[in-house]
Specification:
With 184 residues, this protein is an all-alpha fold. 81% of the residues lie in helices and 0% in strands.
Amino acid sequence: MDFKKFLPWIIAAVVLIGIYSWVKGINNTAVTLGQTVEQSWGDVQTSYQRRNDLIGNLVNTVKGYAEHEKSTLTAVIEARAKATSVTVDPTNITPEQLAAFNSAQSGVSSSLSRLLVSVEQYPNLKADQSFLKLQDELASTENQILTARTRFNEAVKLYNRHVTIFPNNIFAGWFGFKEKPFFE
C-alpha cells in the first residue's frame, strides 16, 4: 500500500478535526460562561426577593407603631409591587430590561430610606426587638445584593470578553451569542 496517495486526505482530516475542535471549544465556553451569567442573575434576583420579603415584614411592624406614616408605608408597598413586576429574561438580558429593573429597585431603596428616616420619630418602635432584627437583616441583605450584583458583573465581563474577542466574535455571532449589559 502506498501511503503517499492517502497523505493529503489524512492531512485534510486532521485539519478539519482541529478546526471542528477549536470552533466547538469557542461555542462550549460561551455556553458555560452564559450559564454562569444566568446563575449570577438568579443570585441577584434571590437577594432582591429576600429584601422584598423583609420589606413586607418591616412595613407590618412599622404599621402598628406609626399610624401617621400611612403615605410613606403606601409608597414603600407600591415601590415593592412595581419592583416585583419587572422581569428580566436571564438568557437574553437587554440594557433596557436591566435599566427598568434597576429603576424599579432604586424606587424601593429610596422609599425604604424615607420609611427608615420617619421611624426616628418613634422611640418605642426603635426599641422593638423584631424591628431591630428586621433592620439588621435588611442591612445584611443590602450587602448580599451588592455582592450578587458584583458577581453578576464579573460573570458578564468574562462572557462578554469571550464572545467579543477576535476570532471568537465571528463564531459566537453565528451561534447567536451576544454581549450582555452590566449593572451600573
